[in-house]
């Protein structure tokens, strides 16, 4: 392939990254990058201009902040982020506002990659792949989504 461009640089400031892990894109074309070293998600527009970061402790006390964000997936502009250190999956709107916890801390051992597959969120965790039917959960429990594992590893 041919080199086209790059974005972000090493550091702790806005638009800087210390260990980018996974990437997802929302319906507006914005690019969400999990930044393990800075314990946050950095968001860039489709032209790679920095927009904002999120994932620090919120003022409400409901979200303690990321310890080690890893996998990320976006469906219907809801951003799902795995935390490899806490073993949790959190979700946000595409402006970075914390919505709730999908999988409680210490439920998973070390979640990494997230992927949307059909109506499920697939989670790579150690030597297992978990599947969560997020469409059913969102339609029945929009403000209090709880985790349910429908499938196991193979």
Description of the molecule:
By secondary structure, the chain is mainly beta. It has one helix at 134-140; strands at residues 9-10, 16-17, 20-25, 31-35, 40-44, 50-54, 69-75, 78-83, 88-93, 98-103, 111-117, 120-125, 128-133. The strands form 4 sheets. The protein has a 4-stranded antiparallel beta sheet, with no helix packed on it. A hairpin with a 2-residue loop joins β11 and β12. It is globular and about 35 Å long. The N and C termini lie far apart (34 Å). The relative contact order is 0.13.
Question: SSE layout and pairings?
Answer:
Layout: E1 9-10, E2 16-17, E3 20-25, E4 31-35, E5 40-44, E6 50-54, E7 69-75, E8 78-83, E9 88-93, E10 98-103, E11 111-117, E12 120-125, E13 128-133, H1 134-140
Parallel strand pairs: 1-2
Antiparallel strand pairs: 3-4, 4-5, 5-6, 7-8, 8-9, 9-10, 11-12, 12-13
What is this entry, summarized?
With 154 residues, the protein is mostly beta strands. Helix content is 5%, strand content 45%. The chain is globular, with a radius of gyration of 15 Å.
Total beta strands? 13
**Main sheet overview:** 4 strands, antiparallel
What structural class should be given to the helix and strand makeup? mainly beta
Q: Can you list the strand order of the major beta sheet?
A: 3-4-5-6
Overall 3D form: globular
Instruction: Give me the strand/helix succession.
Output: EEEEEEEEEEEEEH
Number of helices, where a helix is a run of at least 4 consecutive DSSP H or I residues: 1
Helix content: under 10%
